[in-house]
Amino acid sequence: MKSIQIFDVNQNKVITAEIIEKSDEDWKKLLTQKQYEITTKKGTETPGACPFSEIHEAGIFRCLRCGTDLFQYSTKFESGTGWPSFWEPVSKLNVVEQRDKSLGLIRIEVLCARCGSHLGHVFDDGPKPTGKRYCMNGFALKFVPLAQL
Q1: 50: annotated active-site residue
Q2: What is residue 1's predicted lDDT score, i.e. its pLDDT?
Q3: DSSP H or E stretch at residue 59
Q4: In this structure, how many other beta carbons lie within 10 angstroms of the beta carbon of residue 19?
Q5: I need a labelling partner for 124 at 20 to 30 A (CA). Which of 63, 88, 130, 135 fits?
Q6: Cα–Cα distance for residue pair 78/95, rounded to 1 Å
């Protein structure tokens, strides 16, 4: 069993978690077509397609595929792009950032550190204090209200 260090918001500490590895076929069986296309094939959703702009309560945005804590509601902001945007992840341990040269552009792709799910991209045009805009696909995330943590 391969493991990884990630930050767990409930426990407020770094924990050791099993790395989740599945074949494309296994993910295809577990996810909707849209979720599979985005998280496994590095697709994107139509701007505004995700209802997360309607969420206005404390909570955690987790990886849809493995449940890893990714972003706190308190770091969410309205970027005007149509995608959920955050100025910082829960922990740099929980995400992987890598160069993406697709579409003839050089961008920084953001993946879940635990299962490799494609989440979106990070840009240097966000608000203070980080100046980052983690532009995420809502269909790659699930929101858990604070009361349910």
Answers
A1: no
A2: 84
A3: strand 59-63
A4: 14
A5: 63
A6: 21
Q: Are 84 and 136 in contact (CB under 8 A)?
A: yes
The total of structural domains in the chain comes to: 1
CATH number, domain of 62, equals: 2.170.150.20
Whether pTM exceeds 0.70: yes
The reply to whether 17 falls in a domain is no
In a domain, 111, yes or no: yes
pLDDT one-digit tens code per residue, 76-128: 999 999 999 999 999 999 999 999 988 788 999 999 999 999 999 999 999 99
pLDDT digit string, tens, across residues 48-86: 888 787 888 899 999 999 999 999 999 999 999 999 999
The range of the structural domain enclosing residue 32 comes to 22-148
Residue 109 within any structural domain of the chain: yes
From the candidates 66, 112, 115, 135, which is the catalytic residue?
A: 135
